[in-house]
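We were asked to recover a plausible sequence for a given structure. The inputs and outputs are reproduced exactly as logged, with field labels preserved.

PROBLEM: sequence recovery
POSITIONS: 331
GIVEN STRUCTURE:
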């Protein structure tokens, strides 16, 4: 993780605050060009999330094949009371990659946190969702913060102090990180929540190949649209000329690496310009757009321990598809 950067803050109304760490001003150009020069060519999964990408992800969560969202929501409903007992009263609730803040709504009324801090890279979507959330929960103090959680290790200084910090990281987004990124991310969360803090995290588990492959290859083609939308986001950022019609969505479970791999395969020999540089694609060559690692519980608990957390509880569905872990900071 890198050090803190300048951010702008704005109080939209009494109790609703926006902070912008200026994700766009970071060296996105360098990051994107470096990824496209790798072999295989790679685009970081964070570039899925422009406004359209965030909307498409919300559509994915409603697909019949995409079991993680409904399974995690059922777990949050079923074990709400046990979660509340662990979080205690008046915590500072920090959600990483909050998206539409759908899952946290299930806990807010009962949890009554001191404040809610949604963190996300997709600025317009984050801010629109914070306004909606405030309308639905007028008593809730919200500090919506646009940042890249791979970069910013420190949160806005204006957050309420002296309350237990509970982090929430749903959606198995940890699976999008490489193993070493996962460890450094979890260590960053551990530093953020402090010695009295905790982390509630959703983790997708290893399961049969058929279920996994179907979840990332829905028949309606929404995941394909989501994958291809990354090219239009890149065009926007780097004045590029990727033509989404010349690439195809591909997703499969790599058993050896225990991960879903999502790719965009070039349908023909082509040359693409972006940020003033050109890239040659052979027909059949692919760009890696996402890895989504699947875990076995003991392996995840070991990772958490290495990051300074102890697993106090695991809640899991009957089919052992998805798990929620309650992790407490340990000294
Ligand atoms: C897979 S979605 C999960 C959304 C929601 N938490 C859920 O569980 O349904 C990942 C979310 O993390 C955000 N995100 C992705 N990369 C990020 C990054 N590097 N920094 C901050 N947010 C990021 C995306 O904008 C998106 O809202």
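RECOVERED SEQUENCE:
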């Amino acid at each position: 993780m890198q050090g803190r950067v300048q951010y702008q803050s704005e109080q939209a109304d009494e109790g609703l605050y926006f902070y912008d760490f200026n994700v766009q001003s970071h060296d996105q150009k360098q990051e994107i060009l470096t990824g496209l020069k790798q072999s295989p060519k790679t685009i970081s999964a964070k570039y899925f999330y422009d406004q359209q990408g965030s909307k498409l992800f919300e559509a994915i969560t409603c697909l019949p094949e995409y079991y993680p969202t409904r399974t995690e929501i059922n777990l949050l409903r079923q074990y709400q009371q046990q979660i509340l007992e662990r979080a205690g009263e008046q915590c500072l609730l920090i959600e990483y990659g909050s998206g539409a803040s759908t899952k946290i709504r299930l806990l807010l009324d009962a949890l009554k946190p001191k404040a809610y801090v949604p963190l996300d890279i997709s600025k317009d979507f984050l801010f629109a969702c914070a306004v909606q959330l405030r309308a639905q929960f007028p008593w809730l103090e919200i500090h919506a913060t646009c940042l890249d959680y791979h970069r910013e290790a420190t949160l806005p200084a204006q957050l309420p102090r002296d309350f237990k910090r509970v982090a929430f990281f749903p959606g198995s987004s940890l699976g999008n990180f490489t193993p070493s990124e996962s460890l450094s991310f979890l260590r960053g969360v551990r530093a953020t929540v402090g010695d009295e803090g905790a982390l509630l995290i959703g983790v997708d588990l290893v399961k049969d190949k058929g279920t996994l492959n179907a979840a990332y290859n829905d028949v309606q083609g929404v995941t394909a649209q989501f994958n291809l939308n990354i090219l239009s986001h890149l065009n926007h950022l780097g004045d590029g000329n990727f033509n989404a019609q010349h690439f195809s969505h591909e997703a499969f479970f790599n058993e050896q690496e225990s991960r879903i791999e999502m790719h965009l395969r070039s349908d023909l020999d082509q040359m693409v310009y972006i940020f003033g540089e050109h890239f040659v694609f052979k027909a059949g060559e692919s760009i890696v757009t996402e890895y989504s690692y699947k875990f076995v519980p003991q392996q995840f608990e070991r990772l958490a321990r290495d990051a300074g957390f102890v697993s106090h509880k695991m809640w899991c569905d009957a089919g052992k598809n998805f798990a929620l872990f309650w992790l407490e900071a340990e000294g």
